[in-house]
């Protein structure tokens, strides 16, 4: 979570037409280049073998080498059978990889740990599909201890029976020792399912998993299901929901966004993590994927423009280039009549932006009122984030 001083230095600024977004914060600068998820260390990976020699050092356990840095961040696991799409999801969502490039990804052989520096620091671990993590010789604590959410990626275009068996075994096993973990099942690769059968397959998988868990004695397991594909916005929507499940202040954010939706006559309001395009909260009205897509594209355009126009270059004393913050005001942008929608964006802090969308054309005088309300909201959100 960014501190107050970071916020005031961020200098991220967007002004309306043409919108620009500026930053003198190096992390934001890198981020805008699609570089804000860091693979913590290639050496700090699990040597994916139960017979690993790695247990010999104090800081290692079954091959996982813990860094101080990694210990304290909420962790999110990506699990599932091999080739189900885990690495593709991680690369598309956090590294801005184009979906078709995932065709060339090699099989993961070690746990890949990605650290996300954003409104909330957390880690995403991509676990190789070929390993049985329930094997007694694994030190489960080192993998599952401290995990906030586990995402099971299930390839819906494959024969999914084995995946369902492995998934339910895993949940039943982990529930005993790690009851705090929340589970999400990504019913993945839905793009390659025939339109006529898509809903049936999604329903079938959901039903089978729920039945199997019930039969195993778990009546209300904390499991959510999301149809996903890296070829549409579904994967961002699903990831947003998973991240939201880790945010304790979510109900407060939702209540605030409900208020702003009503007072500014928005159809929908999102609080976006600017660089991943994950939204950490929205108002509680029903969401449409198309609306999300429009808001997400809007952010992309703003970030791209900022890269081209948003920086006034200065020189440090040592002669190296630095970005110079021109205004300490919050970023804002407003656009009317895009596919029949009006869009409004305001930077909340270094990482977050509020985007509101309404179905009618909005005009300049009305914007003043929206500005006033959103600025009041921004102050409150900053307070909530600071306390978080
Ligand atoms: N059609 C389609 N293909 C996908 C999707 N997501 C991933 N794939 C493809 O699935 C294949 C396997 O993806 P990976 O991300 O390597 O799978 P993985 O689960 O990381 O595999 P392991 O490393 O073996 O555990 C690749 O060819 C991807 O292009 C999707 O949403 N739709």
UniProtKB/TrEMBL annotation:
Biased composition (Polar residues): 20-29
Listed Pfam families: Gtr1_RagA (PF04670)
Catalytic activities: GTP + H2O = GDP + phosphate + H(+)
UniProt-annotated location(s): Endomembrane system
An annotated GO BP: cellular response to starvation
GO CC term, one of those recorded: nucleus
Main location: membrane
Region (Disordered): 1-29
Subunit (UniProt): Component of the GSE complex.
Chain's role: GTPase involved in activation of the TORC1 signaling pathway, which promotes growth and represses autophagy in nutrient-rich conditions.
Keywords: GTP-binding, Hydrolase, Membrane, Nucleotide-binding
Coiled coil: none
Protein name: GTP-binding protein
GO molecular function: GTP binding; GTPase activity
Family, per entry: Belongs to the GTR/RAG GTP-binding protein family.
């Amino acid at each position: 979570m960014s501190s107050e001083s970071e916020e005031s230095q961020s200098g991220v600024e967007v002004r309306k037409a043409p919108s620009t977004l500026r930053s003198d914060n190096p992390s934001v600068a890198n981020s805008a280049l699609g570089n804000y998820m860091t693979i913590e260390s290639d050496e700090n990976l699990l040597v994916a073998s139960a017979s690993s020699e790695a247990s010999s050092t104090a800081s290692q356990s079954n091959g996982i080498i813990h860094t101080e840095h990694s210990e304290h961040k909420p962790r999110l696991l990506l699990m599932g059978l091999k080739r189900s799409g885990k690495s593709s999801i991680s690369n598309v969502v956090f590294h801005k990889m184009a979906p078709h490039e995932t065709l060339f990804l090699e099989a993961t052989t070690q746990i890949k740990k990605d650290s996300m520096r954003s409104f909330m620091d957390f880690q995403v671990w991509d676990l190789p599909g070929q390993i049985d993590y329930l094997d007694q010789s694994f030190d489960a604590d080192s993998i599952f201890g401290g995990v906030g959410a586990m995402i099971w990626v299930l390839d819906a275009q494959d024969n999914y029976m084995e995946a369902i068996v492995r998934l339910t075994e895993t949940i039943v096993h982990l529930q005993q020792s790690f009851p705090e973990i929340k589970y999400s099942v990504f019913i993945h690769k839905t793009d390659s399912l025939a339109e006529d059968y898509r809903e049936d397959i999604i329903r079938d998988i959901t039903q089978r998993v729920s039945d199997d868990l019930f039969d195993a004695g778990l009546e209300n397991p904390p499991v959510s299901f999301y149809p996903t594909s890296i070829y549409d916005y579904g994967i961002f929507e699903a990831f947003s929901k998973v991240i939201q499940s880790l945010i304790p202040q979510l109900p407060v954010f939702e209540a605030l966004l409900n208020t702003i939706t009503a007072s500014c006559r928005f159809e929908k309001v999102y609080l976006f993590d600017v660089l991943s395009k994950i939204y950490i909260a929205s108002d509680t009205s029903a969401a449409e994927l198309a609306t999300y897509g429009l808001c997400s594209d809007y952010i992309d355009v703003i970030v791209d423009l900022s890269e081209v126009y948003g920086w006034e270059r200065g020189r440090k004393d040592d002669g190296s280039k630095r970005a110079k913050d021109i205004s300490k005001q919050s970023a804002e942008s407003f656009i009317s009549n895009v596919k029949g929608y009006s869009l409004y964006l305001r930077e909340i802090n270094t990482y977050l932006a509020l985007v509101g969308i309404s179905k009618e054309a909005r005009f300049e005088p009305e914007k003043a009122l929206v500005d006033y309300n959103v600025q009041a909201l921004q102050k409150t959100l900053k307070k909530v984030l600071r306390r978080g």
